[in-house]
């Protein structure tokens, strides 16, 4: 093998990626974001070579004095930002956080209620993902007619019915979604759950940055015992996971064992200083950023509707989060529209909508697309730019070539904002 040639090829592919996705595309994938240069600089360090199993100052390794200091600092920052008594930043992704957290409250054979896949739930909440791997039986929250809100009355009846059924042991409700337009009724449902000793986890993977900025709901104050999350969607940290709680110390200490040594050995230490800086960015700029994200999402919803798109949730102002769902079933389906947009450097993804039945065909080409505005907001775009994006999406589905225009538009927004 010509090693040098292969290495050059690999380096070139990385450069191509950086040039394309970092500088030339309008990125509307709802689960992504970009980190600031400050966070990037903190991310690449010797910590990526090291091990530090255990908790700060109580490790199973030597040589950990700096990660002890940093992890303790990052933990304190997270507790302060999210007003939580307890935190662990050790899960290396949102899915890993869910796996550990579900196990904290369940045993194989228990029943949980979570959001269905068409209702926006994440795969880890369902039988094909973490919940199924933990041997849990999964029921879905009943949806209201609009498909984007839970039906509270039906949910209360479902909880009662399963909790009273001797053949089932209902141990957990999992709120939070991947297609997540509106807050979920945690406050309304928590008292019924408490009556039957059913625990509540809120998966904030998508909306953590909005919660940090005070712009969504406040799950720990509404009845959730745990928040699980990714740290890289609306929250603009490095890719990773976290769990937050207001449990008392003794209980938390026991529960944390499901993270380490349960599902984590070493927790990829280089994330921690980067995350600490992202937490500081949120303390200073989080409110302003989150407000702009929601304003931009609503503005894009309106502009897309003006351009003839069927934007879901119109009667509720389209969205209260960073996301929009658009029904494109009459113009070729989600896959086709996402591909047409990509031809013009607009990156978004296909998505099942609540009306879709799951089948090989709908998974391949579902009715919808999902759009997230958080990354473009981070680059400083405001409502006016959302109008332009809507026009470019419209031209893309008409199969017009606007790639060069999209590149030039994007070049004007090339620096991350909401940082020091
Ligand atoms: C609601 C929800 N939870 C968990 C996850 C998984 O997060 P990660 O990709 O960090 O494992 C996702 C991913 O998109 C998600 O949407």
Give an account of the 3D structure.
This protein has two domains: 41-278, Type I PLP-dependent aspartate aminotransferase-like (Major domain) (Aspartate Aminotransferase, domain 2, 3-Layer(aba) Sandwich), CATH 3.40.640.10; 286-411, Aspartate Aminotransferase, domain 1. Helix 6 runs parallel beside helix 7 (186-195). Helix content is 45%, strand content 13%. With 420 residues, the protein is an alpha/beta fold. The chain has a seven-stranded mixed sheet with strand order 4-10-9-8-7-5-6, with helices on both faces. A four-stranded antiparallel sheet has the order 11-12-15-14. It binds pyridoxal-5'-phosphate. Pyridoxal-5'-phosphate (PLP) is lined by residues 31, 93-95, 98, 122, 124, 176-178, 203, 205-206, 230, 241.
Number of domains: 2
- Principal-axis shape equals globular
Mean pLDDT: 98
In CATH, the homologous superfamily of the largest domain goes by the name Type I PLP-dependent aspartate aminotransferase-like (Major domain)
Number of strands: 15
| CATH C-level name of the largest domain | Alpha Beta
Helix residue percentage? 40-55%
- Give the strand line-up of the largest sheet: 4-10-9-8-7-5-6
Individual helix count: 17
Taken as a percent bin, the fraction of beta residues is: 5-15%
């Amino acid at each position: 093998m010509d090693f040098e040639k292969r290495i050059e090829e690999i380096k070139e592919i990385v450069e191509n990626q950086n040039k394309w996705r970092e500088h030339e595309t309008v990125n509307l994938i709802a689960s992504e974001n970009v980190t600031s240069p400050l966070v990037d600089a903190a991310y690449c360090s010797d910590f990526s070579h090291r091990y530090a199993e255990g908790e700060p100052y109580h490790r199973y390794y030597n040589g950990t004095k700096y990660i002890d200091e940093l992890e303790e600092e990052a933990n304190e920052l997270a507790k302060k930002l999210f007003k939580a008594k307890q935190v662990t930043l050790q899960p290396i992704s949102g899915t890993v956080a869910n796996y550990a957290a579900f196990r904290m409250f369940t045993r194989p054979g228990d029943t949980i209620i979570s959001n269905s896949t068409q209702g926006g739930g994440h795969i880890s909440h369902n039988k094909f993902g973490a919940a199924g791997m933990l041997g849990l039986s999964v029921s879905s929250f009943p949806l209201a007619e609009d498909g984007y809100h839970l039906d509270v009355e039906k949910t209360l009846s479902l909880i009662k019915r399963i909790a009273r059924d001797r053949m089932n042991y209902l141990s957990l409700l999992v709120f939070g979604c991947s297609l997540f337009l509106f807050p979920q009724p945690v406050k309304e449902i928590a008292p019924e759950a408490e009556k039957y000793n059913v625990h509540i986890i809120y998966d904030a993977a998508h909306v953590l940055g909005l919660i940090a900025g005070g712009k969504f709901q406040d799950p720990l104050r509404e009845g959730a015992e745990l928040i699980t999350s990714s740290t890289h969607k609306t929250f603009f940290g490095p890719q990773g996971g976290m769990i937050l709680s207001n449990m008392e110390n003794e209980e938390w200490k026991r529960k944390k064992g499901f993270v380490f040594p349960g599902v984590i050995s070493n927790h990829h230490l280089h994330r921690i200083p980067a995350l600490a800086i992202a937490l500081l960015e949120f303390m200073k700029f989080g409110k302003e950023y989150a407000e702009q994200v929601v304003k931009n999402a609503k503005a894009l919803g309106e502009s897309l509707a003006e351009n003839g798109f069927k934007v879901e949730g119109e009667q509720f102002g389209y969205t209260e989060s960073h996301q929009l769902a658009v029904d494109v079933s009459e113009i070729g389906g989600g896959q086709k529209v996402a591909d047409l947009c990509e031809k013009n450097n607009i990156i978004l993804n296909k998505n099942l909508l609540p009306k879709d039945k799951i089948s090989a065909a709908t998974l391949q080409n579902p009715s919808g697309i999902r759009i997230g505005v958080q990354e473009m907001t981070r680059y400083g775009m405001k409502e006016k730019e959302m109008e332009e994006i809507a026009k470019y999406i419209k031209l893309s589905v008409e199969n017009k070539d606007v790639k060069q225009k999209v590149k030039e538009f994007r070049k004007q927004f090339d620096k991350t904002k909401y940082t020091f």
